[in-house]
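lol so apparently i was supposed to do this last week
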Amino acid sequence: MKVCVVGTGYVGLTTGVSLAFLGHEVTCVDLDQAKVDMLAAGRCPIYEPGMEDLLAEAAPNLTFTTSYADAVPGADVVFVAVQTPSAADGSPDLRYLRSAAESVAQALDHDFTVVVNKSTVPIGSGNWVDAILRDSFQQRENGSEGTGRNDTEFAVASNPEFLREGNAIADTLYPDRIVIGSDNPRSLEVLNRLYRPIINQTFTPPTFLPRPEDANAVPLVSTDLASAELIKYAANAFLALKISYANEIGQLAAKVGADITEVARGMGLDQRIGSRFLQPGVGWGGSCFGKDTKALIATAAEYNLEMPIVKAARDVNQRQRAIAVERLQDELRILKGRKIGLLGLAFKPNTDDLRDAPALDIANSLIARGARVKLHDPVATERFRIEQPELAPYLSQTIDEVFADCDAVVLVTEWGQYLELDWSKFIGLMRTPIILDGRHVLDAERMRRIGYKYIAVAG
Ligand code: UDX
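anyway here it is w/ uridine-5'-diphosphate-xylopyranose bound
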């Protein structure tokens, strides 16, 4: 099928490259010429394991352009995956979505095109995009640019994306489910056809990412527009509150002398609960959970509805960051003048994404209390320098530099290379060998044997 993808951010690029890999003819549009040039040369502007390999395998079916007129005409499906940053009041800023929809409408030229919202957009945005498309299309037909074609038809659908950064390709090719929503039955048929190779798992896996042994046919949830839009928010908020629940129980575990890691393991083995997303620590960050929980609360407020559970999940998450600083204060008593090292800046391992990263709040709060911080990340430092210029002077090039003369080190992001560190090598460098495990991933007994004072955010 012929596919156009508008926006080559995380979601758009993964969608475009994956669909091209599956054999569809894909054109990706992005207004950023430098990005388009880079992608056309086979280089990936984002840090995502495997993306450049997939780009190479998909290249014969993939084109990048800055022109809607090169990409939209003739497309069976147009995915809109543009950024929706938070506006000043916390609601998503839909200006890019609006201008993308207008540009798509100007270029539509096919007997039936499905315009798909792929970005996470507030519930009701499908209707909103539909109205923009119709207005722009009508204007075009009334004005001089009209093609005069009266067989051009389109419909709006929602196809939420559930990929995790760092796992984007596997999550796209071997997903738990695919959700499509539209009030137009023909759109659902088109999207069903588009995704058939994934649904039936009939494609040949990429050489670098074999099909997992337990991969089965992928369930398709084919539903109405509003339900598809709500599924995305409901799922992300549920994952967020699952983590916050583990963190809330973790605080109680610390008080009563229980081990939260054991408690989470014991809970998660109940299949109704499930073991994933019960990992306690400094809490969630990233581009989705914070923004989506906030947007869900804002949408509910438009209907005079409170979302007390979602609100509580947000509060608990923020509290975890504060507790990390309190735990250090409990140990060191005075934070002023102390040197504290943070290992891991990205909001989670295997990404250089720093959005809403717990490390930022923790570093700022320590600095505000007069501590001297040293910051380290294996991958995110380039981005950190650009996005966090006021914190950039605190960056350390090496792990030795972080430990040298340090009063405490906090493991904030559980990068593999930190887990594999020979911790015994660094203890001699520290002034006081305190380790705060912000993710509950280090072996407490082993750390204590080496001679560290091991503490965790809970427990
Ligand atoms: C998330 C959703 O998982 C994905 O489905 C959605 O499309 C986008 O948002 P992502 O933000 O990339 O994906 O990361 P994810 O792996 O879900 O982790 C989110 C945050 O939760 C990270 O900061 C992670 O460290 C934290 N986390 C995760 C925990 O604190 N504990 C856990 O048990 C799991």
